């Protein structure tokens, strides 16, 4: 027989996993829409992040500043026609006041260049420490790594 405390903890953990999954999906969608306010809402005010080896300035503004600079660099290669981030395989370990999540994803960017249409595809892993802040799970630490990428002609 499962005690009341155990059943409560299981329900709480299931709810927390669902909220963390929703956070990762919300971040991916905000990136696709270039919604910087929504992206900031995924991070704590003191978040520490490293994206592809670049240590970002602390806090939410560090993340959006980095994404703005990446968008400017990408625009030099041709304005993206679309961007799609897909996230999957969210693995979560819970600790006393935090959670550690590993999330795998793929980013697709389609663009028209002087040479024609291309599709850029990149495999990603997000290695996150999450905490509850203002009643919601948010990223406190993130290391984003590109695992592979490719560019190919698109039809």
Automatic annotation (TrEMBL):
It holds the Pfam family SnoaL_4. Residues 12-142 form the SnoaL-like domain. It comes from the Bacteria. InterPro entries: NTF2-like_dom_sf, SnoaL-like. This is SnoaL-like domain-containing protein. It comes from Aeromicrobium choanae. The lineage of its organism: Bacteria, Bacillati, Actinomycetota, Actinomycetes, Propionibacteriales.
């Amino acid at each position: 027989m499962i005690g009341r405390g155990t059943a409560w903890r299981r329900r709480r953990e299931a709810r927390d996993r669902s909220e963390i999954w929703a956070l990762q999906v919300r971040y991916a969608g905000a990136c696709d829409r270039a919604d910087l306010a929504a992206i900031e809402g995924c991070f704590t005010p003191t978040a520490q992040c490293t994206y592809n080896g670049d240590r970002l300035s602390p806090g939410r503004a560090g993340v959006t500043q980095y994404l703005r600079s990446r968008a400017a660099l990408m625009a030099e290669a041709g304005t993206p026609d679309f961007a799609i981030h897909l996230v999957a395989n969210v693995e979560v370990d819970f600790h006393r006041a935090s959670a550690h999540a590993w999330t795998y994803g793929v980013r697709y960017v389609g663009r028209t260049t002087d040479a024609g249409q291309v599709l850029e595809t990149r495999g990603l892993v997000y290695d996150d420490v999450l905490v509850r802040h203002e009643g919601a799970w948010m990223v406190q630490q993130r290391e984003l790594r590109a695992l592979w990428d490719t560019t190919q002609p698109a039809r």
